[in-house]
Design a protein that fits this description.
Distance between the termini: 82 Å
Structural class: mainly alpha
Radius of gyration: 24 Å
Number of strands: 0
Order of helices and strands: HHHH
Shape: elongated
Length: 116
């Protein structure tokens, strides 16, 4: 096993242990943990079975197999950012609606106080 393989296995195990510990401490929602555990498992699988990485790279027409890992990591990061953008957009709309509802309630309360 090469140094790079050991580093990749160690990194993937650290990611997976960090995710499990974050779930245990309730710092990470299980919905998001599945994505990270899947990424860690894929990295671990490719790190342990190098022929699988070479096969997948050859299947996709990639000449340098580690480029497949970087490409997958880049794609994963893009998908995570897209997902978080969608979540943030949804929360922004919810906050705007709540602020409007609070403003309407405050106005109604002020009108009731003025009517007394």
């Amino acid at each position: 096993m090469h140094t790079l393989d050991i580093l990749a296995v160690t990194a993937s195990l650290i990611v997976m242990l960090f995710v499990v510990e974050s779930i245990r401490r309730s710092n990470l929602n299980a919905r998001y943990a599945i994505l990270w555990l899947g990424a860690g498992a894929a990295l671990l699988l490719f790190s342990l079975y190098r022929p699988l990485l070479h096969w997948a790279a050859a299947l996709l027409g990639i000449a340098y197999p580690p480029s497949l890992l970087f490409g997958l990591a880049f794609l994963f990061a893009l998908l995570i950012m897209l997902h978080y953008s969608l979540v943030i957009s949804s929360h922004r709309d919810s906050i705007r609606r709540l602020a409007q509802a609070v403003a309407l309630l405050e106005r109604e309360l002020e009108e009731q106080r003025a009517a007394r």
